[in-house]
Amino acid sequence: MKILVCISHVPDTTSKINFTDNNKSFDTNGIQYIINPNDEFGLTKAVWMKESHKAEVVVASVGDASCESTLRKCLAIGADRAIRVNMNPLDGFSVAKQLVEICEKEKFNLIIAGRESIDYNGGMVPGIVAELMNYNYVANCISLEIDGNKATAAREIDGGKEVVSSDLPLVVGSQKGLVEEKDLIIPNMRGIMQARQKPLEVKDPLEVNPKTLSNKYEKPSPKGEVKMVAPEEIDKLIDLLHNEAKVI
Amino acid sequence: MSVIIYSESENGKFKKSAYELASYGRALADKLSLSLIAISINNNEADPISNFGVDKLIQVNDKELERFQVNNYSKIISEIASKNDVKILLLSSSADSKYLAPILSVKLSSGYVSNVVELPESTDPLVVKCSCFTNKAFNYVNLSEKINLISLSNNSYGVMENPKKMEIENFSSSLEKSSLKIQKIEKITGKVTIADADVVVSGGRGLKGPENWSLVENLADVLGAATACSKPVSDMGWRPHSEHVGQTGKPVATNLYIAIGISGAIQHLAGINSSKVKVVINNDPEAPFFKAADYGIVGDAFEVVPKLTEKLKEFKS
Questions:
Q1: CB proximity list for A56: less than 8 A, separation 6 or greater
Q2: Are residues B113 and B212 in the same domain?
Q3: Is residue B71 part of a domain?
């Protein structure tokens, strides 16, 4: 069994977001990068399947050389090899096309990508990859069992979950629930040393025109001061919510 | 050419998000001088959606489509869109619609932008504003493909009545066999979901334990609200992770968000930021959440919340 986990290299969840170049680019100054959390849940699941399903786990990322540190971390967590497509990701579609190029060559049984990245939140890469490959796709995946050529997966839906079955190959959009937060693997020294020896292939990108183009960024306008209400003046809060905010 | 919306139904009735999508679609169609078409699947209602500016409703009735199945639904929607010369296809931000959108964007060879929060800034070129960095910023994106797909953030535009004389058409098509099969659906019934709620009441570690959750639930009951929780609460297993809101949990975009005993970590704030009015109840005056709140009470949740619940009961009656 062969698994691809698509990795997005994203600013740490606590990062302060700023823009530069007349608000045309994201300011990377002082930003710490991490594995996109939704991808990391998927990677952990894949690493478990190395033992349970004798799986080979490949991680791939589309980005410049700076994302290699994130890919090395994936190798330290337990992935077998890594691929980086040397391209500045412009939109979800062009990223998905690069991943499809890898999928067509390698014939994975299972492709995992986070339900969305925490930077651009597009939530489109796994779905586009699935449709371009003509594979089945399970979004917002919160459980996955694989038995031979069959998968049983659960998708989180509004107010509950839906359990589906599908043949492989399959694409899933991973998120918390597929594994739990406490299951995430912290690389140990041995893993980190091994990761240095594991293959990290750099590929030239396929020529693809993006379908959307970022024009500029904007930060939310600063909000007004908080209005404090004393705990013994609950009536005042209800009055404010009713007459001022008009939400009740 | 047309603007087309996929108006979602539940139990044979339009969801509230369908009316918001129609309202947005109407305004967009007017800007582009196009007609507005709505697609509904297994829903025999027509009148309700005609109140929100729809020129034509295309109804699909098929027993095979009784349950949402992504391959079937995307096939039907893309066929209707192509047949009606779609220029812009609009979807909501429900779990099902966000599942459909990337697949539809491939079928229609369209551009696709999700989390759109406003009407386009310009229509030539088409520039839309969407949230990014999990609500910490906005991105203006140019869409230059012949067909473009937009997912509208829930509760970002609102509902605007605009009654129209609406034409109704039926559509049917053959479905393909797929190995992707729905085995079962487990859904909490009779409870407002976070995705559809106007008000969300959320609890954090300050509530000290799952046994105290009646505080959150009673307040939510009075307000007809959905219940939610912070990440530590779901990590400790006090509440199911379907209630976890924040950066890696569910996004919340409601009219009113009430946070009880939640300090307001940056990841939590990111997930709930697009809610319109935020009320924070916390015994720590230094809790960072107060900086992001509209209204705040520094006090003991175990005293303040029951009092608020009682007073709201009186207010509502």
A1: A1, A2, A3, A50, A80
A2: no
A3: yes
Instruction: Tell me how far the alpha carbon of residue B260 is from its chain's centroid.
Output: 23
Note which residues in 27-46 of chain A have CB less than 8 A from chain B: 37-38
Residues B299, B167 share a domain: no
Q: State yes or no: cis peptide before B48, omega within 30 of 0.
A: no
pLDDT in tens, chain B (317 residues): 999 999 999 999 999 999 999 999 999 999 999 999 999 999 999 999 999 999 999 999 999 999 999 999 999 999 999 999 999 999 999 999 999 999 999 999 999 999 999 999 899 999 999 999 999 999 999 999 999 999 999 999 999 999 999 999 999 999 999 999 999 999 887 788 898 899 999 999 999 999 999 999 999 999 999 999 999 999 999 998 889 999 889 989 999 999 999 999 999 999 998 899 999 999 999 999 999 999 999 999 999 999 999 999 999 98
Asked if B236 is an interface residue toward chain A (Cβ–Cβ < 8 A), one would say: no
- The reply to whether A231 touches chain B by the CB within 8 Å rule is yes
Query: Mind telling me how many Å the CA of A104 is from chain B's nearest CA?
Result: 17
Query: CB B134 to CB A182 under 8 A?
Result: no
Does a structural domain hold residue B182? no
Indicate which CATH number applies to the domain containing B283.
Answer: 3.40.50.1220
Q: Determine the residue of chain A that is closest to B100 in CA distance.
A: A127
Q: Which residues contact A173 (CB under 8 A, 6 or more apart)?
A: A38, A113, A114, A115, A116, A123, A126, A127, A137, A138, A139, A140, A141
Q: Which residues 185-224 on chain A approach chain B with CB closer than 8 angstroms?
A: 211-220, 223-224
Q: In terms of CA atoms, which chain B residue is nearest residue A132? A: B106
Domain count, chain B: 2
The phi, psi pair for B242, rounded to 5°, reads: -65, -15
Partner residue opposite B95 with nearest CB, options A137, A157, A219: A157
Is the CB of residue A20 less than 8 Å from the CB of residue B139? no
* ipTM for the complex shown: 0.96
Kindly list the structural domains of chain A, giving each domain's residue range(s) and its CATH number in brackets, ordered by start: 2-223 (3.40.50.620)
